[in-house]
Amino acid sequence: MPHYSSTSVVSASPMWNLFRYLKPHWQYFSWSCFASTANKVLDLMPPVLVGWVIDSVRREPPDWIADLLGTFDPWNLAVFLAVLGVVIFFFESIFQWAYQYGFMNLAQSVQHQLRTDAYNHLQTREIEFFENHRMGETMAMLNDDVNQIERFLNIGFNEILQLLVLFIFAGSMMFSVSWELAVVGLLPLPIILWGSLIYQNLISPRYRKVREAVGALSSRLENNIAGILVIKSFTAEKFESSRVSDSSRQYQKANFQAIKLSSVYVPLIRMAIAVGFGGVLLVGSYWVLEGNGMLTVGELVFFSMMIQRILWPLTRMGVTLDEYERAKASARRTFGLLHTPSKIVNPVKCKKLVLPVQGSIELRNVGFTYQRGGVVLKELNFKVDSGEMVGIAGVTGAGKSTLIKMLLRLYDPTQGQVLLDGIDIRQLELSELRAQIALVSQEVYLFHGTIAENIAYGSEKMDFKLVEEASRSAQMHDFVQSLPESYQTIVGERGIRLSGGQRQRLSIARAVLKNSPVMIFDEATSSVDTETERAIQANLSGITKGKTALVIAHRLSTIRYADRILVLRDGQVAEEGHHDELVAKNGTYADLWHIQSGDFGSH
Ligand SMILES: Nc1ncnc2c1ncn2[C@@H]1O[C@H](COP(=O)(O)OP(=O)(O)OP(=O)(O)O)[C@@H](O)[C@H]1O
Ligand SMILES: [Mg+2]
């Protein structure tokens, strides 16, 4: 998405940022690294031991062992080396447990911290961010990217560390025994490294395609499951089946391309390894036979075993590098998100509202344009006094909901000011501002949970009496009582088990319970029947008593009795006045009213 770059700062050194997360655990981290290093070193001991054992039983033991034990007796030496072998294996196992436990724990801690930090930061992001990003994209960041980082810390990092230890330790041992033979054995190394890099370059675009394909497939599936009602009602099952099949086929193809390459990589590397291995056997045997003590049998065995130990992990290097690259990409995205500040933040120096809050609202020359869209509001001016109920009318797309977003500072106006009790809302702390406004939004969103929990949403602790009271005001109580589980009824995801009108009433109850000085109803009764609407309306004056209320409605009967009605057109207040005045004016409002009341004749 091209917009992405403008809302996210791309993190320059993602891995460095990741290691900063390890800082609080540095002691733990150091111990894990130590355990891993010790494990690898001990893991490399068997070839050395085997070499020593062979030379000892052939009565050519290494000098230091003979000196240490003060004997050349092969049996004594063999017993000593066998015991040493057991001790080595024992410690190797302990260190293995220690590093696995350590890195796993570390990865889990960092994962938890990173995920909660990312989520907490995401919550502070402006609404615009969410409107401009696909949900799947944001979810992937919180899930897949964090998991990828966790996997790297748990496995990938350790692999890289052990690879380094292996090279340094095994390499120096081999060179110290016979540098000539070490050179022969490591001859294929440049080819393997070069091959790995080429493989890396070839495979990463293919993996990227796999990831894209799996993303497309899962978003298709997600969309289809969410939209199953539409699919069924339009009998689009066949169409969707073939779309899913296409997506799945793309995924299969992408995977096949990647598998084709990755399946040849390991065999090719093995062939290169075989050359080194064969070289060591051949040259080593020659030196044992003809080299006049240049190489002992034990050393030859040590070499041939060690060469394998060094070269085998290289076959995994392609995978390890790939894991590193993926973790880097994930870290870049995650820290990109974390380091991009919200566009809407608390002011540096806050002003405080004078208590008790009056709830008077003023818009001065407010203009607004969505980043991707035309001008919605221009030079909008109006005032709502404390305690007043103001209706807002206007055709669909006139900018009514947008106006509400300005009041809550979900968006900042591109021009002009919004004032609450005479203070520019940009000078107020966001939480203080939003606590003053109870919104029943056009799109009701309920959380999975009980009816009571949803009504009390946002309150610190649930006071059941208040819940019931709010529910009564919203004409919800009788309905809830009729349910077998009453207020403990689960509403389902997004409130799916309630009807549209029931959801609306619930969200009115929620706003009533919030008990804020300003109440905003955006199409709050559009889905309820006329009778319920009337009942809510009769209650509305009770609900909004002593509060400032903004009521947006297409159904003009809802705002008929408002103290004042504003008609929004072309981003401005086109008409203003009481219902009767506006009808008498014969303007837009009068037109709408006549159409809705079926009273065409009077116009
Ligand atoms: N996030 C957005 N990005 C770009 N344009 C938007 C966005 N949200 C709304 N718009 C556009 O802004 C205009 C005003 O939208 P708004 O939701 O405020 O209308 P409304 O008056 O509430 O309409 P309705 O009565 O249908 O609810 C519309 O033309 C809409 O297409
Ligand atoms: Mg709207």
Would you identify the CATH H-level superfamily of the largest domain? ABC transporter type 1, transmembrane domain
> Into which percentage range does the β-strand content fall?
5-15%
Shape: elongated
Largest pleated sheet = 6 strands, mixed
- Determine the structural class based on helices, strands and strand pairing: alpha/beta
Number of strands: 10
Poorly predicted regions are 1-9
Strand order of the largest sheet: 6-7-8-3-9-10
Number of domains: 3
CATH class identity of the largest domain: Mainly Alpha
The CATH topology label of the largest domain is ABC transporter transmembrane region fold
Distance between the first and last residues' Cα: 50 Å
CATH architecture descriptor of the largest domain: Up-down Bundle
Helical amount among residues, as a percent range?
55-70%
Question: Tally the helices: what do you get?
Answer: 23
Bound molecules: adenosine-5'-triphosphate, magnesium ion
Q: Which oligomeric form is depicted?
A: single chain
How large is the radius of gyration? 36 Å
The overall pLDDT average reads: 86
